[in-house]
Design goal:
The protein is mainly alpha-helical. The chain has helices at residues 9-44, 52-75, 77-101, 104-127, 137-154, 159-169, 176-195, 200-204, 214-217, 223-252, 257-272, 275-284, 287-306, 312-339, 346-375, 377-386, 388-405. α10 runs antiparallel to α14. The protein starts with 8 loop residues before the first helix and ends with a helix.
């Protein structure tokens, strides 16, 4: 039996490279998230369209997920992740062009391509566990997720500097942060291609042949893997639906761009800053318990945010809790999923999970704009809270079955 306290030197290098890439890529993602909805609102002239920013981002991530997983299964993680980051860079550039042309169609197309960076971000966490020991899966995964914190917290606060750069180059102020996104993603893609050696998945795949299609993965979506996928998807839908309309809600109540950027920064810090703790809890306390903790925090977050009204401090607390609840649920869910799969089948089942996650987020973002426009931000939070119910029920059911078998 391997010593759980030792780490393969190659694994250490892989995690270090992925972590460094996540810092740079996180700046791009954070900058884009902070202004995406506002940019769509500005170009379209309607708050009703603002939710489409997150919809396009998540649909883009979903569209790239399975192709990237297939590339990873055939060629390794390095080419798959490099492609995702570079496509994200092109998306940020297209979004800037759309803003300059005042074209909603081009902006939305750019945001779809931008979503490839999210797919790369998500699949990086799985790359971190390809060579990890079973007892270290949660921690390896969470270290890469945690590395996103630095860039992701900085990114939303680049709205001011981004506007200054935009003035210098003659583009709309809200498009300025997208320039930072394009540069950050391009650097992340190049770093991944040059430095991610040895490829984590090619080495891990020595255990057997990799699956070659989604149909080969679907039979493995059962039991604990199914519970993990549902927990990840539902938690992401809760987070995206509330987060997507928070900038619009705050702007409508008179909040400045700086305060909105700070709120999104706190939200993203909640998502990533405590991820090592969540990984440790998943390894030591159990993935199921950690998921239940996350669902409880999501319930509290939707109550706090949904009743915030004009209170900027309360919405900040609610969005921070929303990030923490997402972190516990998604990290524990991803660890549970990885631990329940054989190495050869992992990439495509993980890709299916990310696809489900992004589609759930897109659906949540799509409905969020409609709900807020017709019933208000409080109703949106109440509807999001309902999504925790099936997750809690399935996790508790699985624990009861495990207890009877035990």
């Amino acid at each position: 039996m391997s010593d759980p306290t030792t780490v393969d030197p190659a694994q250490k290098r892989i995690v270090s490279v992925l972590s460094a890439v996540q810092v740079i890529g996180g700046i791009g993602n954070g900058a884009g998230l902070a202004v995406g909805a506002l940019l769509v609102k500005d170009v379209s002239g309607s708050s009703g369209w603002s939710g489409m920013a997150v919809v396009m981002l998540t649909l883009g991530a979903a569209a790239f997920t399975i192709p990237m997983a297939s590339i990873a299964a055939r060629k390794g993680r390095r080419p798959a992740l490099s492609l995702g980051w570079l496509c994200g860079a092109s998306g940020a550039a297209v979004t800037v062009l759309g803003a300059q042309a005042d074209s909603l169609a081009i902006v939305l197309l750019g945001l779809v391509l931008f979503g490839a960076s999210t797919a790369a971000n998500l699949q990086s966490r799985f790359a971190a566990v390809d060579r990890a020991e079973p007892g270290q899966i949660g921690r390896a995964l969470s270290l890469v997720v945690w590395s996103t914190t630095v860039g992701a917290v900085i990114g939303p606060n680049l709205t001011g500097p981004g506007a200054a750069v935009a003035d210098q180059v003659g583009i709309p102020d809200l498009a300025g942060p997208m320039l930072f996104s394009a540069v950050g993603f391009a650097i992340s893609g190049l770093m991944t291609f040059v430095l991610l050696r040895p490829d984590p998945l090619i080495r891990a795949a020595d255990a057997g042949p990799a699956a070659r299609g989604v149909r080969a993965a679907l039979p493995h979506v059962r039991g604990r893997a199914l519970t993990a996928i549902l927990a990840i998807a539902a938690s992401h839908a809760v987070m995206v639906s509330v987060m997507a309309l928070t900038p619009v809600h705050m702007q409508d109540h008179g909040s400045s761009l700086n305060i909105i950027g700070l709120t999104i920064s706190l939200h993203i810090a909640g998502m990533f800053a405590l991820s090592p703790l969540m990984g440790w809890l998943s390894d030591r306390w159990g993935a199921e318990r950690t998921i239940l903790l996350g669902q409880s925090i999501l319930l509290l977050a939707t109550f706090v945010a949904g009743t915030s009204g004009h209170s900027e401090s309360q919405i900040m607390v609610g969005l921070t809790l929303l990030g923490v609840g997402w972190s516990a649920s998604v990290i524990a869910g991803a660890a549970m999923l990885s631990a329940s799969l054989e190495v050869p089948i992992r990439p495509l089942v993980q890709g299916f999970s990310d696809l489900s996650m992004n589609l759930a987020g897109a659906f949540g973002g799509l409905l969020a704009g409609v709900v807020v426009a017709t019933s208000g931000f409080g109703t949106l939070n109440a509807a999001a809270a309902v999504l925790t119910v099936p997750v809690i029920a399935l996790v508790l059911s699985g624990r009861r079955v495990a207890a009877r078998i035990g």
